[in-house]
Amino acid sequence: MAKRVLVVEDNELNLKLFCDLLRAHQFEVEPVRDGREAVTRARDFDPQLVVMDIQMPHVTGLEIIQHMKLDTRLRHIPIMAVTAYAGRDDEERIRTAGANAYVSKPISLVRFMEEVRALMPAESAAPPAPAPVAAVEAPTEGTEEAPQPKGPGLLL
Ligand code: MN
Q1: What residue ranges do the domains of the chain occupy?
Q2: How far is the CA of 130 from the centre of ligand 1 (A)?
Q3: How many CB atoms lie within 10 A of CB 135?
Q4: Spacing, Cα 8 to ligand 1 middle (Å)
Q5: Is the N or C terminus of the chain more exposed, i.e. has fewer CB atoms within 10 Å?
Q6: Which fold has domain 4-124?
């Protein structure tokens, strides 16, 4: 099953480069050109990794990272910052904001893919099968007397 990568990048050439590279390595990619859409698209796409440009109009990658790390549904997703910033201060700020990795432009494609793989969950950790859905949906009738499906921990 293809792993999903959300790619947030305002530069069309870089966006195409990252997406082509990831697709060539069997990732499913979702390109986002406007950083203002990044959080919503991340919620919809549910990626295993976010590749985040930092310098963008309207909203910086730094702000998006901070926003994602405050969102309980998104904060666990690893973020790989990609930026032309060279200074150590900038790298420090980006990492402090919550980026898990930092790759500076111009991009080394080998290093890019190494970082992507390093941030991905292990291949053996297959995504959980959606089997429990059927079990949860099963008791639709006569559920009045049935206990709420909250899990035993909440009843103790
Ligand atoms: Mn940019």
Answers
A1: 4-124
A2: 37
A3: 9
A4: 9
A5: C
A6: Rossmann fold (3.40.50)
DSSP code of 72? T
- What distance lies between CA 102 and its chain's CA centroid? 15
Q: Which two tokens stand for residue 51?
A: 């590749």
Residue 33 CA, ligand 1 centroid: distance in Å: 9
- Cα(81) to centroid of ligand 1, in Å? 11
Q: Give the type of residue at 75.
A: R
Single-letter code of the amino acid located at 37: E
Ligand 1 geometric centre to CA of 60 (Å):
9
DSSP code of residue 147: P
The pLDDT tens digits for 49-92 are 999 999 999 999 999 999 999 999 999 999 999 988 667 888 89
Place of tokens 């297959």: 126
- Rg, C-alpha atoms of the chain: 19
> What does the alpha-carbon distance between residue 61 and residue 67 come to, in Å, rounded to a whole number?
10
CA–CA gap between residue 91 and residue 96 (Å, rounded)? 8
